[in-house]
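Re: Re: ligand-bound prediction request (bumping)

Still looking for help on this. To restate: I need the protein modeled with iron/sulfur cluster bound, output as structure tokens. Inputs repeated here so nobody has to scroll up.
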Amino acid sequence: MDNLFIATVLLKGDEMQIKKYSLTVFGCQMNERDAETLRGFLDEMGYEETAAAGDADLVILNTCAVREKAEQKVFGHIGRLGLLKQKKPNMLIAVCGCMVQQKAVAEKIRKRYPFVNLVFGTYNLAAFPELLKQAQERGETVVSLLAQAGGIEEELPVSRQDNYRAWVNITYGCNNFCSYCIVPYVRGRERSRKSADIIREVKGLSDRGFIEITLLGQNVNSYGKDLPGETDFAGLLARIDKETGIKRIRFTTSHPRDFTEKLIRTIAEGENICEHVHLPVQAGSNRILKLMNRGYTREHYLDLAAMLRSYIPGCSITTDIIVGFPGETDEDFADTLDLVDKVSFDAAFTFMYSRRPGTPAAEMQDQIPLELKKERFRKLVNLQNSHSLRHNQALLGKTVEVLVEGPSKTNPAVWTGKTRTNRTVNFTGENIRKGILLPVQIIDAKTWSLTGRTGFGQRNADD
Ligand code: SAH
Ligand code: SF4
Ligand code: F3S
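Reply:
Sorry for the wait, this slipped through. Here it is.
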């Protein structure tokens, strides 16, 4: 590491100028968390972060492959960086993450965008400092992809952007192979971290004043299955709740197939486990669920949702839904709308099916035309919006606990934060700062957010 630090500072000769990097993250929380490790390495190397790629000596894109649009965005970005590099020929460009873990994509970048200095996949994050050094030294693109993930490295650096909430990995990879999904191919087989390591990390965060953690895995419910003698996910949650002192425990993503009654009880009984479950259903038709290889039926999902609502008062259930999966008929889609009505989700992320080369669904007959996907998408969004609004309106006049995230991006005069059920609340009040928990009274409800006020009930001298 020392060598690298010297390399960084001395590269510009006698100027001793601090080097700057910009880092753009696409995709899910896994990528956000990986980016924190990259930042950790860059801190150790003496780099400083800048928001503007134009000011940077090193530009990094951490990419996502889950839908075609995500990939197109990255190619657009790389193209623009090429133009920037014509003006700043010494700028280094690195592209990493899920998209480039696909060999064909890494190869395409090397051929079509030769100005990219470094391409590396998801399995060799730990080698980043060494790879960066090679890229600095070589005139051609350094491409480094490992065929398989190695063991879990516990000692990698991390630089978190907040000091009150944190992502905590509990599993890496995915074994589910849903027929539409690229993730198992770019993130490898499921590997769990040891519970002792996870608990130590959360305890450390709590001791340093962190309020909230989100446990991360593509399927958190299968936590521990690959480690003989290890606790299961419900056991892990219960221990974090009792042993770490952290005030808000979140987790994502849950898979309906192995979401157990024991887990629902654990959430219900846990003092600090947030009353929110993100439980992607993907489709409401049993025929499509089977083709998707999801491993559960709509009836099973409806039972789980009912159990969650009855065991955990006020529990928020959110989901992911795909429309236009190959072969989806009007009847199949009607089943999805019906399930959305029956469960009445608090919120949903809705996606149009995107064909991912190399996955089984990409080869299926009856790919749905874009126009039909768009029409179904609109219908689904409209229906879901009415449910989201109804759930939010039910909170009017109530007081909820909000974790303050800072001034709102759209209106700096207003604060923003999240309830335990993960709803966004925009509010005003005095003596507020980022990272504190506050009671907020809800005075208005919209589809995507709530409006609130603090300080209610406090009496002034002249009241
Ligand atoms: N592991 C998580 C989700 C990871 S991907 C889970 O199983 O729920 C996030 C979401 O992207 C998925 O839930 C799915 O709804 C969506 N998605 C994945 N592949 C997709 C594809 N090929 N086209 C459209 N949406 C997709
Ligand atoms: Fe993809 Fe399915 Fe794994 Fe989620 S569970 S990451 S949707 S394969
Ligand atoms: Fe995308 Fe990779 Fe996440 S494909 S959704 S960034 S695991």
